[in-house]
C-alpha cells in the first residue's frame, strides 16, 4: 500500500525517533509499504517519520542512482552499484573523509534542492529487517543517502545545514509546502 509522505511543517519530522523491537506491530507490512511508497515517489530513501511514524526505521535504495551510469564511468562512483537495505535502530558510529557538496532534495520538502556538505564516508550500526546486527561502512552517494535518512530519525532535515540567509530566502516556499500549496506527483499529507 502506498502511504502518504508527510510534508514539511509536521511535528513528527522534528522528533527524535524511538527504537523498536522485533515485536513492533505489523513491521513486515510496514516495511513492504515503505518500499512501495519509495518506489511510487521515485525516491532513493525513506524514513519512518516521513510516513508519520516516530520510530528508528529507514530504507535506502541508492542502486537507482547508478542505473543510468554510462559504461566506463563506474570508476567515478566508488559505491556503485549502490545498495537496497533496511536500517532499524541505526546509530552512526563514525563519519570521515572530506565533506563534499551534492544537490540534495527530500520527499517531505518537494521542489527544493540545495547543495549540502556531508562527509564522504559513514560507519553505521543497525539491525536489518530480520533483526540481524550489522556494522558497515559506506561511501560516496550511498553514504550521503544514509546520512540524509539518518537525520530524519534524529529530527533533522537537510535544510538545517543551510546558512541562515539561504534558509530565510526559502521560507516562503517552505511555508507553501507546510500549507499544502504545492503540487507533487506522489501522495502527500499536509499539516495545514
UniProtKB/TrEMBL annotation:
Could you cite one Gene Ontology molecular function of this protein? metal ion binding
Recorded hits in InterPro entries, A to Z, give: Peptide_deformylase (IPR023635), Peptide_deformylase_sf (IPR036821)
EC number of this enzyme: 3.5.1.88
Q: Which residues bind Fe cation?
A: 106, 148, 152
- Which domain of life does the UniProt lineage start with? Bacteria
GO BP terms: translation
Its required cofactor(s), as named, are: Fe(2+)
- Keyword annotations for this protein? Hydrolase, Iron, Metal-binding, Protein biosynthesis
Show the catalytic activity: N-terminal N-formyl-L-methionyl-[peptide] + H2O = N-terminal L-methionyl-[peptide] + formate
The record describes how the cofactor is bound as: Binds 1 Fe(2+) ion.
Q: Which residues form the active site?
A: 149
- Gene3D superfamilies, alphabetized: Peptide deformylase
Q: Which family does it belong to?
A: Belongs to the polypeptide deformylase family.
Q: What does this protein do?
A: Removes the formyl group from the N-terminal Met of newly synthesized proteins. Requires at least a dipeptide for an efficient rate of reaction. N-terminal L-methionine is a prerequisite for activity but the enzyme has broad specificity at other positions.
Q: Any idea what this protein is called?
A: Peptide deformylase
What organism, scientifically named, is this protein from? Arachidicoccus soli
Q: Which gene encodes it?
A: def
